Amino acid sequence: HQPLCECNPCYAGPNCSQFISNCSANAGSGDPYFLEPFWMERPEKSGILVSGWHRMGYTYSDGSYISEMLVKHIKKLHQLVGNVVTDGRFVVFGGGSTQLLNAAVYAYSPDSSLQSPAKVVATAPYYPVYRTQTQLFNSRDNRYEGDTSIWKQNASSVNATFIEFVTSPNNPDGKLTKQILNGSNVKTINDLAYYWPHFTAIPSPADQDLIIFTISKVTGHAGTRFGWAIIKDEGVYEKMLSYLDSNTMGISREAQLRALKLLDVVLEGDGKQLFKFAYSTMKNRWTKLKEIFSKSKRFSLQKLSPEYCTFFKRSRDPTPAYAWVKCEREEDENCYEILKAAKIDGRGGSLYSAEDRYVRLSLIRSQDDFDILINYLTKLIDQE
Ligand code: PMP
């Protein structure tokens, strides 16, 4: 039952106990290794064995690319957590939520030979894939048009459809957000990748027209590449389905089988074990982080307020996946470089269309990565 023993890249030796001196803290990518210990405690229950003859065909027995049983599991999970309304909603699967982001842009875009191309927008600081993906596909039916702030006053009078990405809690700063633009010509794609008790209070179930989730940030299986969209309107659902059909003929049957098995384990008993584990891990990490930053005048963390959580039935502080650090000194214009010189590898603010005075630090990696990060942060802040 032992996992393959691979040392954290900062450690060597037979027991992975020798720290490689001067090794930088990896606080860059959002690989969700913080959930690995939960799954290591459940090695057999959470495993699948796929025989050579299993599901060799393209479709399920009903001719679709979507496992009905998995749809039921997903709806059960949402009902348990109370983070989204699923009654009467349609569900589409994607290769990670990444594939669904563009499927949703496609579904909301008009035929540009008849109307102006849709304007795709987001509010800084935002997850860069919304922009890079729209630009990569370079469709005649939609175009990336910058920050919502440019359109805030006049969106409703512009003769075009707006497609606004709303990320809540937001990546990188962890804030619960709402749509900025108003008007009957505004459609929103609500990316709720982090709307789980791991990271935030759940004040009420979301019920926007188009909502996207991913398994990556709930069970932590980013490598499975599995996401889902919850859709109100049948026409939008049909368009997203046809995108998925033409693009990849749905999602790998093995990925769907693994997702089903993982959700089976999550839903076991009272269905709260994963959420208790994830929240307590994130809470411990945030307690340590806040303590260190409370001693600093040079660096600050994002300010977040407690909210009532309907899942835990009490008020709680947010425990976001990322620290959004600001360098407060006038001269510290490039915060990424300052942290890098102190052996802390984060991601610079400009990647998220914010100032380089900000840096994102990932808090959802392994315990080793987090401990190394805390170590270097302590040293840096002690020097002040
Ligand atoms: N949306 C947001 C806000 C994210 O942070 C991420 C992953 N970092 C994704 C979508 C994509 O997730 P995936 O493709 O793994 O489902």
Description:
The protein has 384 residues and is an alpha/beta fold. It folds into 2 domains: 141 residues, Aspartate Aminotransferase, domain 1; 199 residues, Aspartate Aminotransferase, domain 2. Helix content is 30%, strand content 18%. The strands form 5 sheets. The protein has a 7-stranded mixed β-sheet. It has a 4-stranded antiparallel β-sheet with strand order 11-14-17-16, with helices on one face. A two-stranded antiparallel ribbon has the order 1-2. The longest helix has 21 residues. The chain is globular and about 60 Å long. The relative contact order is 0.17. The model has no long low-confidence stretch (mean pLDDT 96). The chain binds 4'-deoxy-4'-aminopyridoxal-5'-phosphate. The site of 4'-deoxy-4'-aminopyridoxal-5'-phosphate has 13 residues, from helix 3.
* CATH homology-level superfamily of the largest domain: Type I PLP-dependent aspartate aminotransferase-like (Major domain)
Question: How would you sum up the global shape?
Answer: globular
Bound molecules: 4'-deoxy-4'-aminopyridoxal-5'-phosphate
Largest sheet: 7 strands, mixed
Q: What are the segments in which pLDDT stays under 50 over at least 5 consecutive residues? A: none
Structural class: alpha/beta
CATH hierarchy, class of the largest domain: Alpha Beta
- Total individual domains: 2
Rg over CA atoms, rounded to whole Å, is: 22 Å
Binned, the helix content reads 25-40%
Strand tally: 17
Strand content: 15-25%
Mean pLDDT: 96
Q: Termini distance?
A: 46 Å
Q: In CATH terms, what is the architecture of the largest domain?
A: 3-Layer(aba) Sandwich
Spatial order of strands in the largest sheet: 4-10-9-8-7-5-6
